[in-house]
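Tokens for GB1/RHD3-type G domain-containing protein. Go.
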Amino acid sequence: MYLEEYANHIDDSSKLKGHAVQIITPSEDHLFELEEDALESILLDERVRDKKVVVVSVSGAFRKGKSFLLDFCLRYLNAEGSSDWMGLEDEPLSGFSWRGGCERDTTGILLWSNVFLSKLPNGEEIAILLLDTQGAFDSASTVKDCATIFALSTMTSSVQVYNLSQNIQENDLQHLQLFTEYGRLALEDTKERPFQKLMFLVRDWSYPYEASYGLQGGRKILEKRLTISEKQHPELQQLRKHIRACFAETSCFLMPHPGLKVATNPHFDGRLSDIADNFRENLKILIPYLLSSENLILKEVNGKKITCKELLEYFKAYVKIFQCGELPEPKTMLVATAEANNLAAVTNAKDHYCMAMEKICGGDQPYIRPTQLELHHQHLKNECEILFNYTRKMGGEEFSRQYCERLLKELDIIYLNYKRHNEGKNIFAAAKTPATLFTLVLITYFASGMFGLIGMIAFANLCNLVMGVVLLTLCLWTYIRYSGDMRDVGSQIDVLSSTIFKEILKPAYKIVSQQSLSQLISLADEPSVNNFTILANQVKQKVS
């Protein structure tokens, strides 16, 4: 009778309440949408909305057993502290969707609909949420997709489990740096460390003779991987400093392989009888380490513990940040390296151009005609394009074409600076403003005298007034050039003088010079005509 009741109790406790709910959904154009209604139905439930919250998330590469692990977390929480929380030997594992094979199963971010309640050692009742995330680095996800999912789950969780296979490798740390940096950018400046707890979970650990399974061996391996020494390359030091600066707490847990039946049986459904004993033993340590009441870590934002309803607002705000497109696009290592190669080639070509132009029209070189300078520019521009194209670069011809176009545009901008510098050496160009103003003074002076002689006093006075204004302007321009003050006013005077010269003086000079030339030609022609007439008359007289 007792055994029968005990079996019924186990059977009742093994039935999970709730189901996985999609709260972040990926779209075909690689954007992520927040399912607000679904999230609100969970976080705004009267039972939990005002309770402080613990959020445990599992992230990492796809097909590494994240959902499988979370289903054991569900069993533990569902058992409500029972020592037999792992269930019966032949009971299939249920909860978050999982399966064997090599294709991804989870997309976006899933949240378990039933919020579990637990009491802290001080007696306060809190809520526990479990997040399951889309695996990184599958064939359908971009680097931005992976970074966004990891960043969102890390920003919204109090414990982030970084699920790895076999070891903590340098590329795992590099990916972690990229993903956490993406999240840190979204959070902007914060005095606190942006994220709370990170636990490296190394699956299929094959070196127990170097570091034992569990937390102690994990601590040993993590210390080795995150150690900073003077002998390390600065890049490696910076990576480790970044990880330490991003998380308030880090830990590591080494898990053995679950056994061949788990890895190779296509019909494996999570039964404990098929899982290796040492995996089960370490699982009994790992799950309570994450979820027992004395180990729970409440979700905090800037040092303040938040409730479920407040977490909803943070979800909305964070998703909006990633949707707005203000964050820089995370890139693959290949693209980042190719960009660096091409930018270095652009810099080398620009340096070649500047060195050559300095020899042609630099600070110590004399003034050169604009047409000659233009020819030198075009010649050097072609040289730089050839130099860029012959430099060995990554990314291919199509990728490099945009950088070549960028180089040519930048060379044109640099040329304009050299052109202005060269024009500054032209003494006639520098004297254009005072010459124009002085010419206006002379014109108005003579005009005033002529109008005075013929009795047009009003026009004479007007000319005198204009002459006085021009003289004052010339004095002001001289003072500005000498002192360097009021440079904007000086520039306006130069522009005005240039306009007067182009629109009034130059056309007037052309008209006057053309009329003068015509008169000279006509005067030169008149003696010739008269001589021809005299000669003709003399011939007539002789004939007659």
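The mean pLDDT is 79.
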